[in-house]
Amino acid sequence: MVQLVPMMESEFQMYSKSSVENYAQEHVRAGDWHSSDALQRAEKEFQQLLPDGLASKNHHFFSIQDDQTGENVGMIWLAVRIEALRPLGFIYDFMIYQEFRRRGYGEQAFIQLEEKAKELGLDKIALHVFGHNKAAIALYQKVGYEITDLHMEKKLSV
Q1: Which domain holds residue 28?
Q2: Rounded distance between C-alpha atoms, residue 54 and residue 31, angstroms
Q3: Which helix (H) or strand (E) segment is 140 a member of?
Q4: Cα torsion angle, 106, 109, 115, 118, sign
């Protein structure tokens, strides 16, 4: 089983650097951004979302810990947003570290996250996933998330 524990500042500093880089790369891979300015765009988005870093209002960062070994096996970032006059949980990032994947940690983390969301007064959690991330899509569907919107495109050769 896992537990979600508040992320410490040192963990957040390591996470934010790699996350900005990964986010930029995902947008390049998806064809949304050009590689020449992707990192700058990602940094700008993160700064807008998290002006006070780990202490930014309505943003909750958790380390996912194996409660038997105490090891950090991943992380999750949940934000509280107001949409249609109701608070909504939005998962900005979720990751099970490579060496811990395929052991059930992801499913367990989502069960724990639902409890945290209820404690925050939320009755719904949403997320975005890039279409090329088939493993993540499968996990999210397995734990009960449904597709609410679908954006499609076709690349044309010129």
Answers
A1: 2-142
A2: 29
A3: helix 134-142
A4: negative
The tokens of 128 are what?
Answer: 């975005």
- The one-letter code for the residue type at 144 is G
Which neighbouring-strand residues pair with 79?
59, 90
Residue 136 burial (C-beta neighbours within 10 Å; 0-12, 13-18, 19+): middle
| Average pLDDT by stretches of 10, the chain with 158 residues | 96 92 91 93 95 96 96 97 87 95 96 96 92 91 92 81
Q: Confirm whether 136 is domain-assigned.
A: yes
At 155 the pLDDT is 79
Question: Does the pTM of the predicted model rise above 0.90?
Answer: no
Q: Go through the chain and tell me how many residues it has.
A: 158
What's the CATH number where 107 sits?
3.40.630.30
In eight-state DSSP terms, residue 104 is S
* Concatenated DSSP letters of 1-36: -EEEEEPPHHHHHHHHHHHHHHHHHHHHHHTSS-TT
